[in-house]
Specification:
five-stranded mixed sheet; Putative glycosyl transferase family 2 protein; about 40% helix; elongated; six-stranded mixed sheet; 2 domains; Nucleotide-diphossugar_trans; Rossmann fold; about 300 residues; alpha/beta; single chain; Spore Coat Polysaccharide Biosynthesis Protein SpsA, Chain A
């Protein structure tokens, strides 16, 4: 067993050593001091020897067959390097309509194509549900420390490198939620941190850096603020799409604010970043884009 002691003060290291001596299990105990989650995960990944490594949080509960099913999937699908599972929020009292919508969306991201297409909306897989090929994750840099959520940054990096991520269509983990959950309480997981790392990778996406002009659907201040990282990296929008008559006709960063019909009449079609995250807007925007002949992933991306 490999254990990484991330600066614990509750006697965990002594308990692990005692357990190893009593059980006869060989224990590798790493004690780097307080290094943070991402570095601790990376140290554990480097010290492990198994071909597959699974992730799970201490207060979650997985189905007994979870690991066997994920290992069997990786055995049978050599082109997939990370496999997640669907998850269920517990306890029931922690659920709310917004969280239910998020989980329905996340649990619906199953294939490598869906996960890659949805990666800029939110994190399409729950980190504690994942199993990966250790050598592949290490070959692409593993977990990195920074002012971003370490799992989301890893998924972005892997997808940009062409690594395939998939998800089993089965709930195999109860994902415990509370106000003190790491992903809610840690500043690395704040909305601004997601926006920064998303913009960093989006600005390097070949669909954005190519010759095709880019248009942004959403001319509100909140949308523009979330995409600040794009403008800082030299991305420019040729037009801003909005349905608000008070905004249409104005100019933002030198580009006009236009109605959605502009997208139908413009040839060739620009690549669209649909960045309106308010409830219900996504479905309406996707329906309009589909009616105008725009294909998801090929002609537009949804940006959370």
């Amino acid at each position: 067993m490999v254990a990484v002691d991330d600066g614990s003060i509750d006697g965990s290291a002594a308990l692990i050593e005692q357990w190893g001596a009593q059980s006869g299990v060989a224990v590798t105990l790493l004690q780097p001091g307080r290094v943070g989650l991402a570095t601790a995960l990376q140290l554990g990944l480097e010290a492990a020897r198994g071909a597959y490594v699974a992730r799970m949080d201490g207060d979650d509960v997985m189905a007994p067959q979870r690991l066997a099913k994920q290992a069997a999937f990786l055995d049978a699908n050599s082109h997939i390097d990370v496999v997640a599972t669907q998850a269920r929020i517990v306890p029931e009292a922690a659920r709310n309509p917004g969280l239910d919508r998020y989980m329905a969306w996340q649990n619906g991201c199953l294939t490598p194509e869906q996960i890659a297409r949805e990666i800029y909306w939110e994190s399409p897989i729950a980190h504690p549900t994942t199993m990966c090929r250790r050598r592949v994750v290490l070959a692409h840099g593993g977990y990195r420390e920074g002012d971003f959520p370490e799992d989301y940054e890893l998924w972005l990096r892997l997808i940009h490198a062409g690594v395939k991520l998939a998800k089993l269509p089965e709930v195999l983990l109860d994902w415990r939620d509370s106000p003190t959950r790491f992903s809610r309480a840690d500043p690395h997981c704040a909305r601004a941190a997601f926006d920064r790392v998303r913009a960093d990778y989006l600005a390097r996406d070949a669909r954005i850096t190519g010759a095709r002009p880019v248009a942004v659907w959403g001319a509100g201040r909140r949308t523009r603020r979330r995409l600040d990282g794009l403008w800082a990296r030299g991305v420019a929008s040729v037009a801003w799409i909005d349905i608000d008559a008070r905004k249409i006709g104005n100019r933002i960063q030198g580009a006009p604010v236009v109605a959605p019909e502009w997208l139908r009449d413009t040839a060739p079609h620009p690549f669209v970043l649909a960045a309106v995250a308010s409830h219900g807007a996504r479905e309406l925007i996707e329906a309009d884009l589909s009616d105008m002949g725009y294909q998801p992933g090929e002609d537009y991306l949804m940006v959370g």
